[in-house]
Design brief:
By secondary structure, the chain is of the alpha+beta class. It folds into 4 domains: 6-80 and 338-415, Beta Barrel (OB fold (Dihydrolipoamide Acetyltransferase, E2P)); 91-335, 2-Layer Sandwich (D-amino Acid Aminotransferase, Chain A, domain 1), CATH 3.30.470; 532-639, DNA polymerase, domain 1, CATH 1.10.150; 655-722, Rossmann fold (3-Layer(aba) Sandwich), CATH 3.40.50. It has 26 helices and 26 strands. The strands form 8 sheets. A 5-stranded mixed β-sheet has the order 2-13-10-3-9. A 5-stranded antiparallel β-sheet has the order 16-15-14-17-18, with no helix packed on it. Helix 1 runs antiparallel to helix 2, helix 12 (454-465) crosses helix 13 and helix 19 packs across helix 22. The termini are far apart. The structure holds 2-(butylsulfanyl)adenosine (IVH). 2-(butylsulfanyl)adenosine (IVH) binds next to strand 3, strand 7, strand 8 and strand 13.
Amino acid sequence: MKKPAAKSDPTAKPVEALTESQAAKELSRLAAEIQRHDRLYHQQDAPEISDADYDALVRRNKAIEARFPDLRRLDSPSLSIGAPAATGFAKVTHRRPMLSLDNGFAPEDVTEFLGRVRRFLKLATDEPVELVAEPKIDGLSATLTYEEGVFTLGATRGDGSVGEDITRNLRTIEDLPETLKGASKPRLIELRGEVYMTRNDFLKLNKVREKAGEALFANPRNAAAGSVRQLDPAITESRPLHFFAYAVGDIEPAAGWKTQEEFLKQLGTWGFKVNPLARLCRTEAELFAFYDEIGGKRASLPYEIDGVVYKVNRLDWQERLGFVGRAPRWALAHKFAAERAETRLREIRIQVGRTGALTPVAELEPIQVGGVVVSRATLHNEDEIARKDIRVGDWVVVQRAGDVIPQIVEVIRKRRPRDSKPFVFPEECPACRSKAIREVDEAVRRCTGGLICPAQAVERLRHFVSRGAADIEGMGEKHIQAFWEDKLLRRPADIFQLHRHEKELAAREGWGPQSVAKLIAAIEARRKMPLDRFIYALGIRQVGEQTAKLLARHYESLPKWRNAMIEIATAIREARTSKPAEGAGLGENLALAESIPAYQDLDAIEGVGPSLANDIVAFFDEPHNRQVVADLESELEIQTYKAPKRGSSPVAGKTVVFTGTLETMGRNEAKARAEQLGAKVAGSVSKNTDYVIAGADAGSKAKKAAELGVAILTEQEWLALIGG
Ligand code: IVH
């Protein structure tokens, strides 16, 4: 079913034209939409829209609330910053809230800011106001606590009041001193700064990920955020992260320095990296000169910036100016305009993703935008193409707003070729020719071909073997593609039949008996699979690793989960045939589902909402998906989920590190068992480590443990400790 045309859609109406009831509807939609993007950005590090588009949503929400103040919702996005802390990390309440900055774009915004500061402080017209101007790093903010000069706690911003404890991950960043250098050490200081990744490191990381068939990061900021929010600090350690310190959150006893400038110097003395481009400015003209100068350097800086920040230099003035809402009165972020260029749209290509989503991609005449050659842009979905009336052959304005995948801002109508035709979005999958349909309330058109669609099948197979899923080493995207083309692989269960084709495989170019034996061994090692990995490996829409864990924990065994899901799908199907509903959208399904006990049970799991439940049930509603699960069940031994028994095990809450080769089990299994018992498994040894389990040929980690006085156990001792 098609979405209603954009014209009658209140989402496209100017705020002034909205009726009260349309405004209420629109506020509800915006609250949900902004919340979703907050989650995608802050928790999943996978934003779907640019910062500029996100800001536009926030602005629209604000404008509607300003016109209809009584309609402001309790869950209004204007009342919260960012997203609540994600699960998986301990929560940390900041000693002082981590706030945001007010943004300015035009020169007048800066003049106004300075005027506000002067008026607030009641300064005489000839009294100079010094400001420190700094580049605004496009990374993720972090707060660091040092007690008696020692780094004790590090956290993300979270919702501004409560963040996530990422201490162990931050310890792996070299720019961050473990202890403050020099003489003056406050008893306690909470420092703020930005974790970031350089452009080059980001590109390198994405190359490696591409080779390994892993999802790519959209930009350096997401790469930094994704790296810091790893549950395994060893992964963070392997990522090239940097840190610039720039602000103080709290300090005891009160600081000895009097200005931001002195504070930045002090940070340097303590051993932090401070942005060398920061500069003291005495006049508005100096601020503008700084803005222009940094703007000119923007494309050649090794890291991404999205503006500059002006901060009142005197700290006593900062104190007096204080905060309004979520931002300090003493600072302003002067943002750069997104980098733009004009080029021609050669072609609109339709990509098919793992879940069958048809995504339009603009193929452009290559053009430089902000120091990067751009030849592709995202077009989001078919509504977006229709709304902007984007046509093949058009000249378009392309924008990079910190993202590697640029956007098309608008079409240059004057340059449109006479014979151009509106783009017709295919209703057929370009990969398998199956019907591609759009559900009510969905912007995305999806191929219905499921696993008969090569695009989906290869993507799903690739997902199936990926690290968090079945984790089959040596089975990269290229191999999967080649096996698919040779009809050796069709469905995930075929992976476990590959051993029957050993000779055939060994005869392939680039393969030999040894490499085939290695691959088969890697596959065999995964015949026993934990339930949560299995659920994640199925590649159900919206079911990430965390959700898979929630489901596994709740249902415990595959038959229990599978039967419950099939029960719901069947009940909905039956209810629908006896009382046919218009379409099969989420709304209709939900209304039918809510009376089914098995559905209520699923919906009651914390972290599972209606939209997610709908996707899981929709998966089991497809006979070919049920077949996929059944086929896998006959190949695999899916292990019942064992909930971590926190507190009852002697290793609960302990931090352990495995090193060397273990005899009785593989590293992954050892890790999983330790985690099941409530232990935290780390990748490197520090003074926070409780036990190092040293297998054969244990090297530097065991040595470090000995140096730090950390208990070292043999594999046998460890097994005895955890009860075999
Ligand atoms: S000062 C009380 N200085 O920009 C405000 N922030 O848009 C303290 N940022 O949350 C922030 N570079 O993550 C400050 N030189 C800089 C910055 C900076 C980047 C980030 C920071 C903040 C965000 C606000």
